[in-house]
Structure formats: structure tokens, C-alpha cells
Specification:
This protein is of the alpha+beta class. It is elongated, with a radius of gyration of 23 Å. It folds into 2 domains: 74 residues, no CATH class; 72 residues. The protein binds zinc ion. The site of zinc ion has 6 residues, from loops. Zinc ion (ZN) binds next to loops.
């Protein structure tokens, strides 16, 4: 676990239309620090360009995974509760009449939309918690010595 599962990849070639076949030259990322996170330099073994990447410690990676997981679960539970409120209360025969009370109508619309968006965010966070590898965005050090978000021909390759 000291070594991130994600790899740094230099894209050699990409071809194909329906199925993209990409050739990479991969190299491992810097080892995780003991505490917190650390930004280290990588020199691409294929072309010699310099990059920066931030890698989290094991503890920090696990903590963030747990946090994403818990927030995802809370969002799912909240959306289930809101759906229950919207439909469970709204479908009662002696429930409030929507036509007579505009405030209630907007409340139902609000909870209905939230009931759709929240589970999407919740599921997204749950998936993210599984995939999260404690590796930040890749930055390329340009000719002017400043890191740039543009990393043409290179990427971080998650190892499934
Ligand atoms: Zn390269």
C-alpha cells in the first residue's frame, strides 16, 4: 500500500475508432509519505519531461476513502428519506391537497428533484471511495519552470 496503484503513463500511440487501443509506457508513482501528503517530481522515462504529482499517505488515503463512503451513504439515506416524504406523504388519500397550497407544491418539487440528484451524488461518492488512490492531479513543468495542468501525451493510469 506504500506504492500507489496508479501509474504514470507516457502515451506512445492511440488508434481505433470504436475501441481505442492505447499503448503506454508506464512507470510507478513516488512512494507514499508516512504522514499527510507530499508533492514529488517525476521524470518521464520515455521523453524526459518533468512532472509533479501529489501522493497522500496511507492513513490520509484511507481516511478520505472512509469520508467519501460515509458521505455517499448519508446522501443515499437522505434521498430515500426525501422520496419517502414526497411519495409516502403525498400519496395518502387524506394528504394535503397540492392545488390549494402552492407552498406544499414547491416543497414536493424540491424534494422530488433532490430525490433524483442526491442518489446520483451518493452513488458517485461510493464509487469514488472505492477508486480513490490518494493521488492528486498530474502537473507538467513547462519550459518556464511553472507547473501546468496541461499534460499532453501523459496521464495517470488507475490500476484496477
Ligand atoms: Zn513522456
Amino acid at each position: 500500500m506504500d506504492q500507489p496503484r496508479t501509474y504514470f503513463a507516457h502515451i506512445l500511440s492511440a488508434r481505433g475508432v470504436a475501441v481505442l487501443v492505447t499503448n503506454h509506457q508506464v512507470q510507478p508513482l513516488p512512494v507514499r509519505p508516512r504522514k499527510g501528503n507530499r508533492t514529488s517530481g517525476i521524470v518521464c522515462s520515455a521523453c524526459g519531461e518533468q512532472f509533479l504529482v501529489t501522493v497522500d499517505s496511507c492513513a490520509r488515503t484511507t481516511a478520505l476513502r472512509v469520508r467519501y463512503f460515509v458521505v455517499g451513504l448519508v446522501l443515499l439515506a437522505l434521498s430515500a428519506f426525501l422520496l419517502w416524504l414526497t411519495f409516502g406523504v403525498g400519496m395518502q388519500p387524506d394528504g394535503p391537497d397540492l392545488d390549494l397550497d402552492p407552498d406544499n407544491a414547491s416543497w414536493y418539487g424540491y424534494t422530488g428533484i433532490t430525490g433524483v440528484l442526491l442518489p446520483i451524488f451518493g452513488l458517485g461518492l461510493l464509487l469514488h471511495s472505492r477508486r480513490y488512490d490518494g493521488v492528486g492531479k498530474l502537473r507538467r513543468i513547462g519550459a518556464n519552470g511553472r507547473p501546468s495542468k496541461l499534460v499532453p501525451g501523459h496521464k495517470l493510469l488507475p490500476n484496477k
